[in-house]
Amino acid sequence: MPVSPESVIKDLKEQKFAPVYFLQGEEPYYIDLICDLIEKNALPESERSFNQVIMYGKDVDMGVVLNNARRFPMMAQRQVVIVKEAQELADLNKEEGQKLLGNYIQTPLPSTVLVFAHKHKTIDGRKPLAKILDKMAVLVDSPKVRDYKLPDWISGYFREKGLTAKPSTLQLLAENIGADLSRLANEIDKLSINLQGKQTEITPELVQQYVGISKDYNVFELQKALVERNVLKANKIIQYFEADPKSNPLVLNVAALFGFFTKVLLVHAATDKTEKALAALLKVNPFFVKDYLAATRTFPFGKTIQIIGFLREADIRSKGIDSGNATEGEIMKELIFKILH
């Protein structure tokens, strides 16, 4: 079975290195993080010029990679060979290249740390190479984090930095940044650096100050305004979006609203409407269940289905289909009008 990125990171921080790492998956954050840890910690800086080789998949083939891996280190305990963008290796998906790598993995040079950073895809699990990697190398799968798991991921990263945040703040970051783990980590690092231990709880005000996400004008607040049928507040928010479309792209706002109203539809259809059951069904923190229940009271079943239709139409128009000369702001205003009336 593939090992978790977290367990590999723990070993690397303890200076435990394996002969072969194969890092693969749609989420590049952990692949880059593990590569960086090996690149910066496997060798002292004074040894890197002779014993660390970094190459890119598009520039080499498997033969070149393995010839480098079979060299002995110069006056050092180990050498490091890192193949970045390994998915671009021309012969990695060919039988010959896979056979070469499979043979090496079965008898690797103990003094070499060989790393493949294979981003945005995975090796075909049916191939012999996948089975060899699973058994004899450190195979790491890095899948995309699902939207509903983002608040938990953010909370965990906060804990690593000695920070805390309420569910609403976690949701604010998740809704506005999305499943871009690298950006989320960078923004949390920025918060940590700016606070310098003076405050440990991250509030929406701090997010606004250091991340640039408005605590009052964001898609999370727009959802609340719609549920409350607060026409004035909803229009203020979409005017704010219209004034800065680069920071508030229509396609992302529509996607967030679509996710919200899809969950509202699930609540309508649920037979067990207890907080615990709905939290499990919607895959959300129980803190937010009351928001979805309130939404079902504002938007009956038939209206919710109609709103999902409006959102599908807006999504198509946001991508330039049947949009005419309408701007993003105009499409958003029309969408909100249809939802509220």
Automatic annotation (TrEMBL):
Coiled coil residues, start to end: 174-201
**PANTHER family of this UniProt entry?**
DNA POLYMERASE III SUBUNIT DELTA (PTHR34388:SF1)
What is the superkingdom listed in this entry's lineage?
Bacteria
Query: Boundaries of each DNA polymerase III delta N-terminal domain copy?
Result: 21-140
The record lists the organism as Flexibacter flexilis DSM 6793
Q: Which family does it belong to?
A: Belongs to the DNA polymerase HolA subunit family.
Report a single Gene Ontology molecular function: DNA binding
Q: Which sequence ranges are marked TM in the entry?
A: none
Question: Which InterPro entries does UniProt cross-reference here?
Answer: DNA_pol3_clamp-load_cplx_C, DNA_pol3_delta_N, DNA_polIII_delta, P-loop_NTPase
Q: GO terms for biological process?
A: DNA-templated DNA replication
For this UniProt record, the keywords arranged alphabetically read as follows: Coiled coil, DNA replication, DNA-directed DNA polymerase, Nucleotidyltransferase, Transferase
Q: What is its EC number?
A: 2.7.7.7
- Describe the reaction catalysed, as an equation: DNA(n) + a 2'-deoxyribonucleoside 5'-triphosphate = DNA(n+1) + diphosphate
Q: Mind telling me what this protein is named?
A: DNA polymerase III subunit delta
The answer to keyword Nucleotidyltransferase applying to this record is yes
* GO CC terms: DNA polymerase III complex
Q: Which Pfam families match?
A: DNA_pol3_delta
